[in-house]
User: What shape does this take?
Amino acid sequence: MTDSVPEHAALLDDFRKAMRHVAATVYAVTTRHEGRSYGILATAVSSLSFDPPSLLVCINRSASLHAPLLAEGRFCVNVLGLGNRDVAEHFMTPSAADRFTVGDWELADGVPVLASAQSSLLCQLVHAHDFGTHSIFIGELTAAKHRQDATPLTYFDRQYIDISEAPGR
Assistant: This one.
């Protein structure tokens, strides 16, 4: 089988369509470097290990967060809840000069943490691996907090959905 541009383009389109139908929790991944806060929305986040407690986060190398996170070595994965939709929408606005003007942000270990997030997981970067357009960051947990009363903000088919209204709940 030979690689051809049309086949590759079709495969990418099929992949995008398939991934739109995978429900995913929405995360605000943040860091602070040289006195400035950086953050992006992400859905490519996963627990990695319980010993040591760690996460992996996949970030596009062209994202504004990428270089500062690599330089700083500390970051927070803020698990957004339904009540944080305003934060998610503000983070998605390309013209937003400062993503941290919406939401109740505080610094913990020098990193922006969303006080109203469902969960906040502070990490120390222990490894970064480049693959394709992204870097896979592995962070070892240094602190965590969780709110019992939050429902995660979930993204599915290009829109936010409320999984607490799902049948059977």
